[in-house]
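Section 5.1 Outputs to date
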Amino acid sequence: MKKLFATCFGLGLLPIAPGTWGSLPCAVLFGILSFAGTSNVIINAVMAVCVVGGSAACVLCAPEAIERTGKKDPGQVVADEFAGQAVTFLALPALAGSNVILAAAAGFLLFRFFDILKPWPIHKLEKLPSGWGILADDLLAGVYACVILQVITRLWLAG
């Protein structure tokens, strides 16, 4: 059961770019909810549940994968990417039409950019123990992506 949650129901077991696959569900979910005209309150609640759920799965389930693989951050553990990607979409302004698709794609790409490059101090957070080190860097990557996406969408909507 722990493996199921840590791998986001098997996405982390895919052979190519498991972190990218682990990030995808939140971006798709955000896009679907926004495109359907769901209220921002509901969208934010869903994204918050994704953050909390992914975080809990990472912290509680990753230690078993660490022990099993001997790696500090096993590639198959993608609950951290799931949680970090959800952070990216928190508190965005209401969007409609093609703006939703563009925002979902931009948020996805921004999160992957920060998650892969790990600018300061994201990389330092990996040193935290066990599942916390796996999770914390992705949550901060999500915050970075969220800030940039907030600026982009607000300037775009204002312009």
